[in-house]
Amino acid sequence: MPELTLVEAVNLALAHELARDPEVVLLGQDIGKAGGVFRATDGLWQRFGAERVIDTPLAESTIVGVSVGMAAQGMRPVAEIQFMGFIFPAFNQIATAVARMRNRTRGRITLPLVIRMPFGGGIHAPEHHSESTEALLAHLPGLKVVIPSTPARAYGLLLAAIRDPDPVIFLEPKRIYRQQREYVEDDGEAYPLEACFVEREGSDVTLVSWGAMMKETREAAERLAQDGISCEVIDVVTVAPLDVATLVESVQKTGRCVVVQEAPRSGGVASEIAAELAEKAILSLIAPIERVTGYDTIMPYPRTEHRYMPTVSRIVEAVQRVMEFH
Amino acid sequence: MATAARGGRKARPAGTGGELVARFEVRYLRFLDERGEWVAEPPAELLDPELQLRNYRDMLLLRRFDHKVLMLHRTGRMGTYPGTMGQEAVGVGMARPLTERDVLVPYYRSATDLYVRGAALHEILLYWMGDERGSDFKAPHMKHDFPIPICIGSQLPQAAGVATAIKLRGEQGRAVLTAVGDGGTSQGDFYETLNVAGAWNLPLVIVINNNRWALTEPTCAQTACQTLAQKAVAGGFEGIQVDGNDIFAVQAAVAAALDKARRGQGPTLIEALTYRLCAHTTIDNAARYVPKEELEAANAAEPLVRLRRWLQNQGILDDRLEAKLENEIKDEIEQEVELALNTPLPPPEAMFDYLYAELPEKLWPQRAEVIARERGTGDA
Questions:
Q1: Most buried of the four, A49, A223, B164, B182, by CB within 10 Å?
Q2: B46-216+225-345, superfamily in CATH?
Q3: Cβ–Cβ gap B192/A62 under 8 Å
Q4: Per-residue model confidence (pLDDT) at position B300
Q5: Contact map slice: A 155-174 vs B, CB within 8 A
Q6: CB-closest option in B103, B147, B361 to A104
Q7: ipTM for this prediction
Q8: Mean model confidence pLDDT for chain B
Q9: Contact flag A92-B166 (C-beta cutoff 8 Å)
Q10: What is the pTM of this model?
Q11: Residue B62 CA: distances (Å) to CA of A153, B47, B135, B329
């Protein structure tokens, strides 16, 4: 098995589940013969056929609404929305049916479905192709919102998402779709959806992020280590519902926290993390929690998106501020 | 036109010329007129006295139920409720041909079809009294039937999804029946559903309860189309208009459409023309906007009276049987109302216990809080 990119790991997980469970069906625009605009479903139509890898009409509400009906019959639809910026026609289906069906029927009808979509900026894509609106989804009770940051995690988490008895929104950070290769064993082992990954232990400050921003966060931790600052790095993975316990435990050890997110600052997942830590670890904190985020503005178009994106330098500076705070 | 743009030829006025490449027709189905007389011969199986007496009994019950709910609302014992008065033939006629293997995806003004399908009145009441358990239909054959949706039109792509599952699994003899109001046909989800149902040739039957009013707006405010049935043309499948006050027409059309769907021959759109003889909901006052003359004409065409006339003319129904039915109906409604009113509140933790298969750790403290708070104030 060669080393895989994140998008190849997504493909591997989809193939694994299609082969394992006849109830798993993929549906979306251009995912069939063409293999999807990012090739996430490359070769799957050829291998599993048009009834397992279904090209849908160009209609997001249809894709999600049809997935609801299929899941209500016990199938396990994995829907692809081509870009997160196009989710809004389906938002009604997500908010009023996907997130609520188990609750609305007191558990009589459940929806084991996954809605996958690439998200995030930094790839010079047109308007509406670069936003990070995970908080809009994370705010809806009844959903799980999962974001992988490595090929191995993409594989293990997607398996878990497909096998989960409840709807999972699976956001794929497209900036790192092909940035890193790693060995991914096609062993069918799912990763937990309920837990953060503490991927680097440290003692001075806890760096928290998810998705594509993990790249900058890891680099910042490396650079800071050279200056003798020991960073604990946590990949949140499931931004809703949050694994608060792991975050609290880390901050109780380090006493400092910097949260990095690509999304705009206000009302985001970083704010929720900061609030939980302020409530549950206030006496351990020796500096204010800092958020390094996108700005509260419309995502700039490709020519200037670099001005918006959080950078390694911004993370390093934030860590230096919390280290110097007294 | 390219030629005109090049200035070679004079452009024709819009809408003239060209070759005829497609033409569409919309049929209107009606058997029993306002006087209870045949205008066409209905399918023989619908002439079964027992079937029509049952239809009549259910329509009468739903008429009485509608009134009872209004009274409950006026005495503060009921939440907002969308009445079905005048539209009983649509709901009863569409749900009657369902088999247990079919799936019903109702819309919000669906007490009629839900009742005929097998939902208990107290379940329907509970939902509209504000209790989630109302959508946990206990009839075993309703296991897969969808809950009442509030968001207009949102049920339609979901119904298409159920039909997709049936088709993908190759389940012969199963179909999906869903409904929408005339207002709902303005929703994008309505058009998207027509589109995908046609493209995938789904075993789906969509009934439009065209009761002429979307809250305060008449159908002409929704569309320039002469019929709503013709919207099926855009989906590439059959649309038919029926007299929604003629239960023979509704039942015949839906039964045929379901049969067609179960045989894998694709979807059908059925527009049932009826009239909302009540307000939009119990908190609406239709007298503010429904023209009086129109309402009088609609009253004369309503579905219950014509079926009663026919049953009487056939010697199937007499005053004695009518009185007996009224008594039975009254008892059932009273019992079900009592059952709903006397249903204890669910435990406080119920608001968390159906969010996920397993409650995430983050939510356990909130769950504990609502339990403790309720105990502390003695509200439980």
A1: B164
A2: Thiamin diphosphate (ThDP)-binding fold, Pyr/PP domains (3.40.50.970)
A3: yes
A4: 95
A5: 164-166
A6: B147
A7: 0.94
A8: 94
A9: no
A10: 0.94
A11: 55, 22, 18, 9
